[in-house]
Amino acid sequence: MNSHSPARATARVLLLTGPSGSGKTSLAALTGLPVLNLDDFYKEAADPSLPQLPDGGGADWDSPLSWDAGAAVAAIEELCRTGRTAVPVYDIATSARTGAAELALDGAPLFIAEGIFAADVIERCREAGLLADALCLRGRPTTTFRRRLARDLREGRKPAVYLVRRGLRLLRSERTVVARHTALGAHPCARPEALARIATARTEDPVEAAARP
Predict the structure, then answer these.
(1) The pLDDT of residue 159
(2) Which of 14, 126, 153, 178 is the most buried (most CB within 10 A)?
């Protein structure tokens, strides 16, 4: 390997996606694995490239174009190859980055990268030989709606009127969102199957897994 070759990956990433409110964060925490929060790679409110809602309701935070996929992939690759990376700290309420923090794997051979846009980087992670699995959590849209709205109101993510309107819009589009993530390569499943697949990924050797066609 020459000095310009990337270091061999010592860890792999399990991408966890699904509709907002589907339970990604709680599932990732349940596994005990290191977690990279992909929502921290949202663009800031002042970014001129932010997509806008067609009804004039402001930025479309549910569009992949509101997210910095390149920076997210760079962080994933650095974690896989060096075991640590610097990640932004993002405040959803103000739509701004408020700082940075270091995430270290501490020798873990597998970590979870979770977020509503995780499916958009499946192919790039696979091509780089970093992907362990890609899962899309799915459930009843009405349950997701209630869970999402309760969380967003509790955390004061946006004004209540905005959150209700967004929640209703996402309720209507949830099956379309899951279909899109599936088309991008994520395996759709409920929590029990997701936990089983994560357990399987934990037992695989990262070098052997990367060598598979």
Answers:
(1) 85
(2) 14
Q: Is the pLDDT of residue 208 over 80?
A: no
pTM for this prediction: 0.82
How many other C-beta atoms are found inside a 10 Å radius of the C-beta of residue 189? Answer: 16
